[in-house]
Write a structure and sequence with these properties.
With about 220 residues, the protein is of the alpha/beta class. It is built from ten helices and eight strands. It folds into two domains: about 140 residues, Response regulator (Rossmann fold, 3-Layer(aba) Sandwich); about 55 residues, Winged helix-like DNA-binding domain superfamily/Winged helix DNA-binding domain (Arc Repressor Mutant, subunit A).
Length: about 220
């Protein structure tokens, strides 16, 4: 797609920034189809104006740019979305791309990089600025480092009793600590064994240690 055919909509509520973008677009012989300062205004513009590309901020007064991107891609599959924002959070960058954006730049990017991103996105490529790529990579690494906490199928009282069992307290000692009868503790112990699918105290202690219930 040549530059003269690219019809661009700007979705951003920062007027000074938008004015700068408008000047840049006109200087490059690109076609400015319109500007929107809210999500509702953007969707209204898309109903009325033909556009090839939406340059989208994530934070809009009445809408989230990530959700807007998803709506646009579903309703106007021929329209590309290029994120241009101050948001550096790798998780939000990932969410924007997953919603269907073709590219993402931070507002600290140069005019030359923005023009390159516009050209590549409108040619069907994906584009991430170097800073956005780094933030995305950091978020992916962080997500891999955080193990998913296992779902523990025990009630709070059962977890408490399991912790005491793992500390090698007897049923009588646990009963005294919790102000229960020894038979009540025996019943709890049987329920814990059944729920966890283990056969003995050694199995209970191993489970408690693996799931961080005891040091």
């Amino acid at each position: 797609m040549s530059h003269t055919k690219i019809r661009i909509l700007i979705a951003d509520d920062h007027r000074i920034f938008v004015e700068g973008l408008k000047r840049l677009i006109r200087q490059q012989n690109l076609h400015l189809a319109g500007t929107a300062s809210s999500g509702a205004e953007l969707l209204d513009l898309l109903e009325k104006k033909a556009a090839d590309l939406v340059i989208m901020d994530i934070h809009m007064p009445d809408a989230n740019g990530i959700k807007l991107t998803g709506q646009i891609i579903r309703k106007y599959p021929g329209v590309k979305v290029l994120g241009l924002t101050m948001v550096e959070d790798g998780r939000q960058i990932a969410a924007m791309m997953q919603a269907g954006a073709s590219g993402y730049l931070l507002k600290t990017s140069t005019s030359a990089e923005l023009l390159e991103a516009i050209r590549r996105v409108c040619n069907g490529e994906r584009y991430l600025s170097q800073d956005a790529s780094l933030r995305l990579l950091e978020a992916e690494r962080s997500a891999k480092k955080k193990p998913q906490a296992p779902a523990i199928p025990l009630t709070r009282r059962e977890q408490e009793i399991l912790q005491l069992i793992a500390r090698e307290l007897t049923n009588n000692q646990i009963a005294r600590m919790l102000n229960n009868s020894p038979m009540t503790i025996v019943t709890h112990r049987k329920n814990i064994l059944r729920k966890l699918g283990v056969k003995n105290t050694a199995g209970l202690i191993r489970y408690a240690m693996q799931n961080g219930l005891v040091d």
